[in-house]
């Protein structure tokens, strides 16, 4: 049997970037850790991005994931907010890539559909399914729950890709 694969899920945000690490061994999935990186909102943009980079770099160093998955940016009507979120997402993709990890991307609706069964699920439904799928998970924020959902989505999709590909 193959050794467990550790997957890092990242829910990018400039105020809070959620992260979650799971282990996948065959069809078994287990919780490793989760949390969020929260730069001081009083810092200027460059310093906040540097803090996100350092926080995620530490997560990668502490938990040694084998693969990573990041949620795609949901583009809203506010272009300025979308650009700021895009900068945080860039950091979220850069850190695992610098560590030599492959980085998958998933649309928010795809993550919700994979984990909850509905592409329009509410955050409360995601947290409930995280408790069902990862009963040992101690989730303290919505950002961390979303990051675990992204990791679970990747666990499901990487299996499908391996079987099809």
- How far apart lie the N and C ends? 20 Å
- SS element count, helices: 5
Supply Rg. 15 Å
Under the CATH scheme, which architecture would be assigned? Answer: 2-Layer Sandwich
- What CATH calls the topology is Nucleotidyltransferase, domain 5
Q: CATH class, please? A: Alpha Beta
Helices and strands in order:
Elements: E1 5-11, E2 17-25, E3 28-37, H1 45-63, E4 67-71, H2 79-98, E5 102-106, H3 108-115, H4 123-133, H5 142-164
Parallel strand pairs: 1-4, 4-5
Antiparallel strand pairs: 1-2, 2-3
Helix pairs in contact: 1-2, 3-5, 4-5
Model description:
By secondary structure, the chain is α/β, with parallel strands linked by helices. It has one domain (5-164): 2-Layer Sandwich (Nucleotidyltransferase, domain 5), CATH 3.30.420. The chain contains 5 helices and 5 strands. The protein has helices at 45-63, 79-98, 108-115, 123-133, 142-164; strands spanning 5-11, 17-25, 28-37, 67-71, 102-106. The protein has a 5-stranded mixed beta sheet. The radius of gyration is 15 Å and the shape is globular. The two termini are 20 Å apart. The model has no long low-confidence stretch (mean pLDDT 91).
């Amino acid at each position: 049997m193959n050794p467990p694969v550790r997957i890092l899920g990242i829910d990018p945000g400039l105020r809070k970037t959620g992260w979650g690490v799971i282990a996948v061994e065959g069809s078994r999935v287990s919780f490793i850790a989760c949390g969020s990186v929260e730069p001081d909102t009083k810092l200027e943009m460059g310093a906040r991005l540097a803090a996100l980079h350092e926080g995620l770099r530490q997560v990668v160093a502490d938990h040694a994931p084998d693969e990573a998955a990041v949620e795609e940016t949901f583009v809203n009507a506010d272009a300025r907010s979308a650009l700021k979120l895009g900068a945080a997402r860039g950091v979220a993709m850069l850190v695992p890539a610098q560590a030599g990890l492959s980085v998958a991307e998933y649309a928010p609706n795809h993550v919700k559909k994979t984990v909850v069964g509905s592409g329009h699920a509410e955050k409360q439904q995601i947290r409930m399914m995280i408790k069902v799928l990862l009963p040992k998970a101690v989730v303290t924020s919505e950002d961390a729950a979303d990051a675990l959902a992204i990791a679970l989505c990747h666990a499901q999709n990487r299996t499908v890709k391996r079987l099809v590909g």
